[in-house]
Specification:
With 398 residues, this protein is α/β, with parallel strands linked by helices. It is built from 14 helices and 15 strands. Helix 3 packs parallel to helix 11 and helix 4 packs across helix 10. Bound molecules: pyridoxal-5'-phosphate (PLP).
Length: 398
């Protein structure tokens, strides 16, 4: 197949209501006067999605009637075949519930499987909407912080054993692969995590939205594939949105092998107003289907480009700013860097990045207290953008 994509292509995203680029959002999130920041924050990509997706959507657009829609059977077969092919996971069609995003789904699951006052376990530094969903719904956070051992992030199982014993902990959210630290959890890590949770009657949400963004030398393991017991005690959130740059289409799936758990969530979704339990969207399902069926080669190429971007970032930043450490990227397109050895306090570091370098990054403290002094780089952009950001940062912080 002739390659019709070019990840080096610079695409103007202004006036497209892009959350990542919109000046009004930059001002709101980073503070007044920040509309000119070069945005390497929100996790979407500055690349066009694969062409078969556009073609599939255009073909449906031309019909000109966009009425209430079921999820087409082709969506389920494309998803099932993709997970079988890429992840050796056999998913049954009736395990799949569609939702308008993994983050909304996490909120629905918290509402459905916990009561106000209950605790939900998370592993900071971790994707900050988890904490927001827990707190906004009147639940409490139980932290099981990750540890850095010999320069690598690890789960702290001794701490988990203690934290999981608290009977108020009803739910745990696993971020796999982990945003922001870039880990692709290994079999034995997932096994330990699962066993400790299940032993303590804790239901597991496995957020695997980044599972297709795996760097060379690593292999993602879908949590429910580890054992029947794990499958029966977990709900797994997946989507094609990160992988193929479709986040604005609000389509995701929650895979739930346990029929009782699935029925409870289905009822909750219906109570929230999702008719027939359909929580996805017409175009989200069409795009996802085309992505899984027709864009595998594009993804394989994307992964090479992303890994080159990562190596560029790591080399340049570590050479340019002595003491900065960029953690190995095993999965996701979000690189995590430790700036603490530069010796700036957090506010000064943020000021230098935003006001002098004029680059918009996700600051580490957003992900939890143990993220303070770290920065997250979204490297899913043309190399030219990354080069510009890295140069400015080195100049500003040197
Ligand atoms: C771990 C994780 N979960 C969920 C999401 C967002 O999911 P959605 O856009 O489907 O709500 C992100 C986006 O960055 C993420 O990193």
């Amino acid at each position: 197949m002739k390659k019709d994509w070019n990840f080096d292509e610079m695409i103007d995203r202004s006036h497209t209501a892009s959350m990542k680029w919109e000046p009004e959002v930059l001002n709101r999130v980073f503070g007044k006067g920040k509309e000119g920041l070069l945005p390497l924050w929100v996790a979407d990509m500055d690349f066009k999605c694969p062409k078969p997706i556009r073609i599939a959507m255009e073909s449906r657009i031309s019909h000109q009637i966009y009425g209430y829609s079921l999820t087409d059977p082709s969506y389920y077969s494309a998803l099932i075949s993709w997970y079988k092919r890429r992840h050796q996971w056999s998913i049954a069609k009736d395990w799949i519930l569609t939702t308008p995003g993994v983050v909304p789904a996490i909120t629905y699951m918290i509402q459905c499987f916990t009561n106000p006052g209950d605790k939900v376990l998370i592993q900071p530094p971790v994707y900050y909407p988890f904490a927001r969903s827990i707190l906004n719904n009147g639940r409490q956070i139980q932290e099981n912080p990750l540890q850095i051992i010999d320069g690598h992030y690890k789960m702290d199982f001794d701490d988990l054993e203690i934290k999981a014993k608290d009977p108020r902990v009803k739910l745990a959210i696993l971020c796999s692969p982990h945003n922001p630290v870039g880990r692709v959890w290994k079999h034995d890590e997932l096994e330990m995590f699962g066993k400790i949770c299940i032993k303590n009657n804790i239901l597991i949400i496995s957020d695997e939205i980044h599972c297709d963004l795996i760097m060379p030398g690593h292999k993602h393991t879908c949590f429910p594939t580890l054992s029947e017991e794990f499958a029966q005690h977990s709900l797994t959130g997946i989507a094609a949105s990160k992988t193929f740059n479709l986040a604005g289409l609000q389509q995701s799936s929650i895979i739930i092998p346990n029929s009782n758990i699935r029925a409870r969530l289905f009822t909750h979704l219906e109570n929230l107003g999702f008719i027939n339990g359909v929580g996805g969207t017409l175009f989200g399902a069409i795009a996802t289907t085309a992505a899984y069926d027709e864009a595998e080669e594009w993804l394989d190429d994307l992964l090479i480009y992303l890994y080159d971007n990562f190596n560029f970032l790591k080399t340049k930043l570590e050479q340019g700013l002595s003491g900065v450490k960029v953690f190995d990227l095993e999965g996701t397109y979000l690189a995590w860097a430790d700036f603490r050895k530069l010796g700036h306090d957090n506010e000064a570091q943020i000021r230098l990045l935003e006001e002098t370098a004029k680059v918009g990054l996700d600051h580490g403290n957003w992900f939890g207290d143990n993220g303070t002094g770290f920065e997250r780089f979204n490297i899913a952009c043309p190399r030219t953008i990354l080069e510009k950001a890295v140069e400015s940062i080195i100049k500003a912080l040197k």
